[in-house]
Request: fold
Amino acid sequence: MKHQTEIMVSIIGVLLFVALLASSIWMFSLEGSPERLAFADTFSQSHHLSNHFFIYLSAISGVWVLCGIAAVLLLKKAYRVQTAGCLLVIAAIFGTLSTVGFGIFSSLIYLIAGVRVVMHQRSYITGEGV
Reply:
């Protein structure tokens, strides 16, 4: 089975997006609590982070988790490797932009895995090594 490294790196990215998903759901559940006010104080002086932001962040993180899982499943199929690489690169770019920077680390890991898949596939096709 090829692409073991890329599969493992993609799974790490999925786990980081799951952590973002869980933390945004947790922050949504802390409506008006002192912990949430302390968290809001680190980002702004207004002490007001809308519930809509945490709902948005959890929904969009869920989308990128599903994209990562789909990419891992596509990597396990030998004939869908290029599609998985493109999906990882696209998810990395839009994951960073749509999570307003909160998903930067998981998106970076998606980008590393996606570029490795695309470059590995290109070198396999051209015969320049494996």
Remarks:
- The mean pLDDT is 82.
- Residues 4-29 form the longest helix (26 residues).
- The two ends are 13 Å apart (CA to CA).
- The helical segments are 4-29, 34-43, 51-76, 81-98, 104-126.
